[in-house]
Predict the structure of Glutamine--tRNA ligase.
Amino acid sequence: MENETKNFIEQIIDKDLADGYYDHVQTRFPPEPNGYLHIGHAKSILLNYGLAKKYNGKFNLRFDDTNPTKEKSEFVESIKEDVAWLGADWEDRLLFASDYFDIMYECAVKLIKKGKAFVCDLTADQIREYRGTLTEPGKDSPYRNRTEEENLELFENMKNGLYADGEKVLRAKIDMASPNINMRDPVIYRVAHMSHHNTGDKWCIYPMYDFAHPIEDAVERITHSICTLEFEDHRPLYDWVVRECEFDHPPKQIEFAKLYLKNVVTGKRYIKKLVEDGIVDGWDDPRLVSISGLRRRGYTPESIRRFVEMAGVSKSNSVCEMPMLEYCIREDLKLKKARMMAVLHPLKLIIDNYPEDQVEYMEVQNNQENPELGVRTVPFCRELYIEREDFMEVPVKKYFRLFPGNEVRLMNGYFVTCTDVIKDEEGNVTEVHCTYDPETRSGSGFTGRKVKGTIHWVSARHAVKAEVRLYENIVDEEKGVYNEEDGSLNLNPNSLVVLKDCYLEPGLAEAEAPESFQFVRNGYFCVDSKDSEPGHLVFNRIVSLKSSFKI
Ligand code: ATP
Ligand code: MG
Ligand code: MG
């Protein structure tokens, strides 16, 4: 702990505590309930929660629900589920910004009384026009010098519903010549005759984000208000609001770089479009990097935590690659999961010299690298399924698996030698025949000869059938995420492959979500939480076994 390098936020916190600027640490995750969370949010959640834990502080989950148009209770529920699943415990601090509407209103009144806010009748277009540009200062609104009394009355009228949407706004009175455009008398309240999911029809005026957010933080006694880089030039306004509203323990805004994944659709808006266009099976489609999609795909909170730690916290934008996330889930599952046999593209293998009614129960280690996972038995008999690609009638160079005349090892079974091939009228291979050598039983210590190929199998009589879904990136990585001409997504037509007739060893018959396993040679798989049921098993491939990612 002592010698570890601290990220720049931890260095700021250390200094604030050492200087006595704060005597505690309090962080928050402030999602707007207008969609489901994604891997980028996971970074923010784990960062905020991790800091609170590290400094013995507190972590709030606060819904930033000040904009009634896009917000829905469905999103509130999904966000709670995702944050809890990631292990970020908000204890009894589940908070809603809309619960502070009264306080925000009081703050606005206070600003008016201090001569720091005014009601403005300019239209949205005029306000934009008056605002000026980066190179040109703005112009004062003709309503800027209204008296305190007039402003108080008009603001109350705004609250009481006397004006239509857009007719009047409340603006902070700061500086129309500020080099920072955010400081040019920003709008802090607008009229919007809309029902709110929490406060119903109580309000027809709603605070703007830049005014509401610092107040939310200050009310909750947040110390370090961590947000993403695009808010850097909003910080002067953030500081202005907490100062002018005269909060005792002003919070500090700290910006960090967003998590960005190369060639992956991450923004909430873009994911929402995939959902609305029906391109994916809801927000939890296993191809999405929404948190619910990752969970359904079989990612674990531990793997996401590790990924976020590897990505690090910094002030400059950088891009992570999907293989790094895949590496993290492989590492997490490697020693924890049993390695089962499952055949995804079945081909019948018949052992002609094996007694027809005989069944042997092979004892198999669940995980060769972790004896703690124990052993299981797997039935072996005369007719098996093997992977279609483990047989070639005419082998290519360096092919060591099954072909006529060749001997291979059946993993956890016997050596078999291919003797014959049966085909249908079209020439497709339908059965492969072989003989086995009883001396070569797995675990018998046989050392008489070696074979180069080892293949897996399941007993045809005992196998359970399952549907298996294989996934690739939803976007075409060769072309990049967006089509340069019309901005549409370059979709990968192979992002979902459904295999309906897979055969699994019988031990998997009772598997239920969220269980996951290694299927030897094929990758890691989990039971699908939405579509799998007893009698109709559905598995998702989480990730294959091989990786291009190197640490
Ligand atoms: P999106 O950018 O996907 O539309 P958002 O920023 O609008 O998301 P909010 O609900 O407003 O979503 O975000 C809640 C918190 O999550 C904010 O503090 C925001 O800065 C943070 N956040 C959002 N996206 C990322 C990301 N890619 N990396 C890190 N933090 C993020
Ligand atoms: Mg947002
Ligand atoms: Mg955003």
The two ends are 22 Å apart (CA to CA).
